Amino acid sequence: MTATEILFWFLSALALFSALMVLVSKNPVHSVLWLIVVFFSISGHYILLNAQFLAIVNLIVYAGAIMVLFLFVIMLMNLNNSTEPQKNSLVKLAGVVAGCLLLTVFVSAVRSAQEIKDSQALMNTGDIGLIENLGKVLFRDYVIPFELSSILFLSAMVGAVVIGKKE
Amino acid sequence: MIHLLTVDWLLLLEKLILIVIVVMASLVIAMYETYAERKIAAFMQDRIGPNRAGPLGLLQPLADGGKLFFKEEIIPNHSNKILFILGPSLAMLTAMITSAVIPWSGDINLFGRTVSLQIADVNIGILYVFAVVSLGVYGIMIGGWSSNNKFSLLAALRGASQVISYELAMGLSLIAVLMITQTLSLKEIVEQQMASHWNILYQPLAFIIFFTCALAECNRTPFDLPEAESELNMGYHQEYSSMKLGFYLFAEYVNMFISSAIVVTLFFGGYDIPFLDEAAHADWGNWLALAGLVCFMLKIGFFIFLFMWIRWTVPRFRYDQLMDLGWKKLIPLALANMVITGAVILWMNK
Amino acid sequence: MNSFVYLLDTVVTGNSADYVPIGIQIIFAAGFVATVMIATHLLGPKRKTAEKLENFASGIESHGNARQPLAIKYFLVAILFVLFDVEVIFFYPYAVNFKSLGWYGFIEVLLFVCFFLTGFIYIIKKGALKWED
């Protein structure tokens, strides 16, 4: 095993464990913190793939901005009467079955996808993930999606203000 | 089988020593910043300041720090225990890891090896700083919320809103600088400034916006709303005692040191020695690197003094004024600066 | 495929091995923080009384606790921050390639900034950032 592989397995295990903890935690603030750990381990994966810009943006946007928003939302809620209504066991069973079915679909889809089987992840090599090259591609080949995203932002701003400023 | 033999152990050891030195030095500097703050405050208010512990009161920070270790640790009954401990730990942790990308000086030669005085010269250097700064908000929020005290909660929300608001203007103001440097690596930014002029000459407006935001990010006066004692008793760390309180207070001083270092790196040439052509004196070897380091520290010292000078000169903003300044003034100003810089550079290059 | 740590001794800028020292620093800082936390826990005296462990409310008896809904203004600031933050991030790859993209890239970004400003002016006109009602 090389050091890259050790790191890969460590980060994968960390990501899965923290993702589980997000679901298991009773306290919503704990869930948010575990989710931040998930983002950190995913950023670690990005760095292994030499996608440095993506790794750091993942931290800035997800861990640094969206999770702050989540914390604000949790603090806005009234957590005193946090007695979650007990769902009956039939609903729980239905949830488990649906979850397992979804997992089966995903696994079989991945297994049958020839492209994924044939391709191998490039560790440490390749420099498309560096900010210079990413910028060139974004501003030369993907100009239209880039401009469209600004319209998307505009609509999101309008939405936020309309919801937040309801008279 | 693990190929441990392929590891460059010497490089790893070198980095480890550098990390220990940098982290410990930033802690010691932060300690003496508290002393400097008190002495400067005393000077400005025509007092004497601490003068009992050791000569000139120089041992005062040690006494203050040592005292905090021996104070009773109080965790209020209604608080969330784990988060209560996590809050100050996160605040301190984020303060301690920002220094990783700062180039302290040029390369030195030790025992035939070329040693870089930068922990990690990463491709996205300045974005790493932003990532860590954006994580700094958790220390405030978690600490304030877990205390389960209304004053703390209010202060934490204020603090978090303030920090995230000024992060935007900070990020935008830098774009204009990066348009000139064309790189995010802090080492390259310094080397470019050594070869030509300091960035402050090209981007004075960006510097003013950046420095204002740095004040707000460090919760320094006039932006110390999260600690506004006249309205909020003490702020988000109201329920804290012992070294947990110490961490919150200490993190502020470490942040002040690091943000001064970043301001110097981006706008004032980093370890560049003014009026000296470093390339012509390469034969000075390690002495040149040492002189650069001293120069860097002196520049940082000036900015730390500026932080303190502002604190004892400018009164605190009202909260609506603070939000207005961040959103309605600094963001449009930074955006305009970016567009004008871009147009001017393109027009000059044709 | 090269091993991760092997790359440490080849001085190439812009590969993942650059991040190893950052990882070490994070571990070192976390260790330091944990040590100090444990030390202060062990060193301090422990004389707990019921009143001491109550939340401080300036000497007045506290009513309820701090787990209450709060003003929506903070939420609005946070959601606008997320949107603006993502837009600011888009400028970084542009700034790095600014000179090679020339006027063509500049017009693109100008258009982006126009949309950004439209949203910004809308927010201000709607009073979403007005702190005093």
Short description:
Chain A: Its EC number is 7.1.1.-. With 167 residues, chain A is mainly alpha-helical.
Structural notes for this entry:
The complex is a heterotrimer of chains A (167), B (350) and C (133). Chain A has helices at residues 3-24, 28-48, 52-76, 89-112, 114-118, 131-140, 143-164. Chain A is an all-alpha fold and 167 residues long. With 350 residues, chain B is mostly helical. In chain B, α3 (81-97) packs antiparallel against α5, α9 runs antiparallel to α11 (242-267) and α9 (204-217) runs antiparallel to α13 (319-349). Chain B has helices at residues 9-44, 60-69, 81-97, 125-135, 137-146, 150-181, 186-195, 199-202, 204-217, 229-232, 242-267, 286-311, 319-349, and strands at residues 108-110, 113-115. Chain B has a two-stranded antiparallel ribbon with strand order 1-2. Chain C has 2 domains: 1-67; 69-133, Methane Monooxygenase Hydroxylase, Chain G, domain 1. Chain C has helices at 20-43, 72-96, 98-125. In chain C, α2 runs antiparallel to α3. The termini of chain C are far apart. At the B-C interface, α1, α3, α4, α6 and α11 of B face α1, α2 and α3 of C.
End-to-end Cα distance of chain B, whole Å, is: 58 Å
Q: What is the helix content of chain C?
A: 55-70%
Q: What would you call the shape of chain C?
A: flat
Please identify the structural class of chain B as seen in this structure. mainly alpha
**What can be said about the biggest beta sheet of chain C?**
none
How many helices of chain B? The count is: 13
- Would you tell me the structural class of the helices and strands of chain C? mainly alpha
Topology:
The complex is a heterotrimer of chains A (167), B (350) and C (133).
Chain A lengths: L2 H22 L3 H21 L3 H25 L12 H24 L1 H5 L12 H10 L2 H22 L3
Helix pairs in contact in A: 1-2, 2-3
Chain B lengths: L8 H36 L15 H10 L11 H17 L10 E3 L2 E3 L9 H11 L1 H10 L3 H32 L4 H10 L3 H4 L1 H14 L11 H4 L9 H26 L18 H26 L7 H31 L1
Antiparallel strand pairs in B: 1-2
Chain C lengths: L19 H24 L28 H25 L1 H28 L8
Helix pairs in contact in C: 2-3
Features:
heterotrimer; A: mainly alpha; Four Helix Bundle (Hemerythrin (Met), subunit A); 2 domains; B: 350 residues; mainly alpha; two-stranded antiparallel sheet; 13 helices; 2% strand; disordered N terminus; NADH dehydrogenase (ubiquinone) activity (chain C)
